[in-house]
UniProtKB/TrEMBL annotation:
This is Metalloendopeptidase. It comes from the Eukaryota. InterPro entries: ConA-like_dom_sf (IPR013320), MAM_dom (IPR000998), MetalloPept_cat_dom_sf (IPR024079), Peptidase_M12A (IPR001506), Peptidase_Metallo (IPR006026). It comes from Dissostichus mawsoni (Antarctic cod). CDD domains: MAM (cd06263). The active site is at residue 38. Zn(2+) binds at residues 37, 41, 47.
Length: 304
């Protein structure tokens, strides 16, 4: 398969040419989610709203759509996914007369068409399609189920500290799964996320959140942590992303390296953040929140 830049975005669905085929990432298509969308087509995925069972979950308003849609499917038994990166939005291909896709459950009307990243069900379906029993790319994935911290540890200086919550006054009222704003009702019980507030702290106070120790399990030493964050405080406060590398199993302290920083204007929605690591040793990933000047409320979710 060859990816190139064309004037539009497109991909064949599945392998259709034995001697290789093209995939186009054209103008305005170079976001992570769009690239994922096109590569999933190449790997055999149809659009989510083209599933055989789509009429149980959405209504296609044919009189408002430019073209008809086919009921093709590669579900692998995975339930319908409103969060799928393969799902079109409510106004996709509209002829200007109104929405083209209406969800049977109105709580998901603003969810369909999300373009942050592939969903957990997208990943599950892909693994089932290619009979992958595990992934070598991800060392851990945490959505803080049942109020557990996924073997992560936290510590604080002064009065700051990470807390597991479902909503924050002046910040998000739900976790990142109620895309895109974190402020709508959810189809399931509200999820947890980690939150730190510096409203009562002093300048320079900090709070640490750290993963468990992870080992290298692939030949190329590149790691790609990603997490959602919501910043609702002062633009001068910042979240530092560290890696702690260990020489061997007897090394209990490790060596810290700063790998990235999040700061700037407060956000009004959950944002996805990626950082590239290059550890050649056993390692931990750490988030250190530092208070600067005035009060800050922020949260971090879904460390992977």
């Amino acid at each position: 398969m060859t990816a190139f830049s064309h004037f539009r975005c497109y991909s064949y669905i599945g392998k259709v040419k034995s001697n290789g085929q093209d995939l186009s990432i054209g103008s305005y298509c170079d976001s992570i989610s769009t690239v994922e969308h096109e590569f999933l087509h190449a790997l055999g995925f149809y659009h989510e709203q083209s599933r055989y069972d789509r009429d149980d979950y959405v209504t296609i308003v044919n009189e408002n759509i430019q073209e008809g849609s086919n009921k093709s499917t590669t579900t692998q038994g995975v339930p319908y996914d409103f969060w799928s990166v393969m799902h079109y939005g409510e106004n996709s291909f509209s002829n200007g007369n109104g929405s083209t896709i209406l969800t049977k459950d109105p709580k998901f009307q603003d969810v369909i068409g999300q373009r942050l990243e592939v969903s957990p069900k997208d990943v599950l379906e892909l693994n089932l399609l290619y009979q992958c029993k595990s992934t070598i790319a991800f060392q851990m994935q945490c959505s803080f189920p049942d109020e557990t911290m996924c073997q992560m540890t936290s510590c604080s200086q002064s009065g700051l500290g990470w807390e597991m919550v479902t909503k924050v006054k002046g910040g998000p009222v739900s976790d990142h799964t109620s895309l895109p704003s974190g402020s709508g009702e959810q189809g399931e019980d509200a999820g947890y996320f980690m939150h730190v507030s510096t409203a009562s702290g002093e300048e320079g106070d900090s709070a640490w959140l750290e993963t468990h120790r992870m080992s290298l399990n692939r030949e190329h030493h590149v790691q790609c942590p990603q997490f959602y964050y919501y910043h609702s405080g002062n633009m001068s406060d910042h979240l530092n992303i560290w890696i702690r590398e260990f020489q061997d199993e007897l090394d209990l302290k490790g060596t810290l390296r700063l790998m990235g920083q999040i700061t700037g204007e407060p956000t009004k929605h959950w944002k996805l953040h990626h950082v590239s690591l290059n550890s050649t040793k056993h390692f931990q990933v750490g988030l250190r929140f530092v208070k600067e000047q005035e009060a800050l409320e922020a949260a971090s979710q879904s460390m992977t």
